Hints:
The protein is mainly alpha-helical. The chain contains 11 helices and no strands.
Amino acid sequence: MNSLVLMSALILFLSSRRITPRKRDRPAAVKGSDFFQILIETSKLQLSSLNFYQAALAEFIGVFLLVLVVCGIGITINKSEPAPASINGALGAGLTVATIVWATNAISGANLNPAISMVLIFTNDLDLMRGVFYIICQLLGAVAGSATLVALVPEFARPMLGMTLVNDKITLLKAFGVEVIATFMLAFIVFACLDKNRKDLGGSFPLTIGLVVTIGALFAGPYTGGSMNPARSFGPAVINNFWTNHWLYWLAPITGSFSAAIIYKFILKPRRNVSNKDSDSESN
């Protein structure tokens, strides 16, 4: 009898309590002060890492070689000899970029281009502090490469050596559009190569990037010199102290790169884990 009374009392007690579901813990919003604190701490970690300086040095060396070789391909040693055909410069640029990407990718990610570094920061694929240092080293490497080339070539070949110039037969707006399109294609391919969700890609991605550089140079070369890289235009501009229309070789590549990022990463949004089998089944 006593046990029955106790059980009844326990049931009444439990039924009288309001049982409310437990709220899920929500991640706390990051305040502005917290963001800057995280940024500072992340920067400290980067600056204390040997890998950080190795990567920055790789970007310097990569762009140094890129500017030195690419700008050196299009010159002639003898005054009486004609300048090499434009196809030589385009192929040389593509092969040079492919080779340097192959060499530096495991060290720094092989950005080799301030516009690419900026857009990778924008898409959160590159740390801000690392990206800033990359851009600084890329510009210094471009100046060093251009200065080295000037020291190597005969004196008659030094004026305007390596400059990317707008063809005087087209307007600045058309030149801007050409550089935007060429750099858009480059950045679009870069994002496709870096896409971790895709398993349908085979072959060599450094060679793929080199090929798109060749295509861009062949397309944009007659109009703007086919820069697609602010550092490639910056180095010769510093050494020659020639800044006419130089803004175009910054604004157009940045515009093209950011356009490619928005379209590839946020509009097209490639599906996860796409394989060759999936691609074949859809095509059938």
